[in-house]
């Protein structure tokens, strides 16, 4: 498929998407149109985050890959993260191109994992929502490095897809953005004081499962990725004192 035809078709599909499922489908198609296999969209990880699974928003990555990635604690070991954070442009690299100028060294365990899943060439870029939330999008496969023309093309498509995703996300957030319930606030308040789910359950006479459900609802409503970020945001918004 020639570049202009591919751009036109994919841009039309992206524009027509009106749900997360449809965005996921078109992201996977875009990934494959450029000769890659996998994509992932993640939230910008907090400074203390070490697990990919906790910041993953959407992907078609194999579950075994995610488990192994987290078992090896590779999130903070990827040398590309700092490069992506310093630019809004897409960045392409290949582990097969070891002598490319500016190519950082990869930890052995990360290199072996990427090779095992045929993810030796990647493209990634930093993205930001209109509400300031940071995201990262990345695609992986075993094809040769992209040409500059291909990189420019896929960068524009990924940016377009993210803009549509962000519109959908903010719409969902608006529908859930009512104030936290009394129980949710109680759970967040006790969490801020260092209590575990089990301890909070005993204090409020609730099961651990119910406490965790309240916590999950609060995390979603405040658009956070974990308890630490939830407590920090609740304090910043003066929801708890």
From TrEMBL:
Keywords for the protein's UniProt record, in alphabetical order: DNA-binding, Transcription, Transcription regulation
InterPro entries (alphabetical): Sig_transdc_resp-reg_C-effctor (IPR016032), TF_LuxR_autoind-bd_dom (IPR005143), TF_LuxR_autoind-bd_dom_sf (IPR036693), Tscrpt_reg_LuxR_C (IPR000792), WH-like_DNA-bd_sf (IPR036388)
SMART domains: HTH_LUXR (SM00421)
Organism: Neorhizobium alkalisoli
One GO MF term: DNA binding
One Pfam family this sequence matches: GerE
Gene Ontology terms describing biological process: regulation of DNA-templated transcription
Positions of the HTH luxR-type domain: 173-238
CDD domains: LuxR_C_like
Protein name, UniProt field: DNA-binding CsgD family transcriptional regulator
